[in-house]
Design goal:
The chain is of the alpha/beta class. Helices cover 36% and strands 26% of the residues. It has a six-stranded mixed β-sheet with strand order 6-7-8-3-9-10, with helices on both faces. A hairpin with a 2-residue loop joins strand 1 and strand 2. Helix 4 runs antiparallel to helix 5.
Length: 247
């Protein structure tokens, strides 16, 4: 299945945050969305999540996403926001369970299948040990993994993750990237905003490189993370690049 972006643009106060993005992204892949701060990465991700107005079109599996109801959209696209604050006095298990809401009818309780998915996601994100603890008592890194578990619990074919490894220690950065890669390999499309070239090169099958709201490069990490692209987009010098090690 393919997510097709056709002339996708986001304009706020007469300023283009995203301009005329065209690409096709296939399920079964982890896509890294890279660019400098202010390049339009979050705006593009939020447009794909249906959270901001945009022009152009988004089509998944030959269906315009704009034609879906909010419930249908929520089943197709899961969104993990950047630095999402946690205010709920809910247990970890309850927060992860929120990911199953799009699949429930009014007043329907969680089924055994829902409970199995919640348990699996907590296991995979290594949050099962504090399943009963209030999420507000957890560290920032632990909360980030709980919110990832909630997003994965939706089991949507498309998962959008905005800086999913921010605030995580190196071990959990690698673990989260492995989880996103595995989720993609199960037949989902995962698009993640990243800043670490090493993580992008190691785990992503495709890279989208944004600069000033425009898509300037798309391809494999080897095709996109070139010296010319990095110097152009990130304003790096040849000497700067000598300090960056990635495959």
């Amino acid at each position: 299945m393919t997510l097709a972006l056709r002339g996708l643009s986001v304009v706020v106060k007469q300023k283009y945050l995203v301009q005329d993005v065209n690409c096709e992204l296939n399920t079964g892949q982890l896509i890294g969305l890279l660019g400098t701060n202010g390049a339009g990465k979050t705006s593009l991700l939020r447009a794909m999540a249906g959270l901001v107005n945009y022009s152009g079109s988004l089509q998944f599996n030959q269906t315009l996403l704009s034609k879906l109801t909010r419930t249908e959209y929520a089943k197709q696209v899961a969104y993990l926001a950047q630095k999402q604050p946690v205010h709920w006095a809910l247990s970890v298990e309850q927060v992860v369970g929120l990911g199953r809401i799009p699949h429930l009818s009014s007043w329907q309780t969680l089924t055994s299948t829902d409970q199995d998915i919640i348990y699996q996601m907590m296991q995979q994100t290594e949050t099962i040990d504090f399943a009963k603890r209030p999420v507000t008592e957890l560290s920032g890194g632990e909360q980030a993994r709980v919110l990832l578990a909630r997003a994965m619990a939706v089991q949507a074919p498309i998962l959008l993750a905005d800086e999913p490894v921010t605030s995580l220690d190196p071990y959990h950065q690698l673990r989260v990237m492995e989880l996103l890669q595995q989720y993609a390999e199960q037949g989902h499309l995962v698009i993640a905003v990243l800043h670490d070239f090493n993580l992008a090169a190691r785990f992503c099958q495709q890279i989208l490189l944004l600069n000033q709201g425009q898509l300037v490069a798309q391809g494999t990490p080897q095709q996109v993370l070139t010296a010319n692209n990095l110097m152009q987009v990130y304003q790096l010098s040849q000497q700067d690049l000598s300090y960056i090690q990635y495959d």
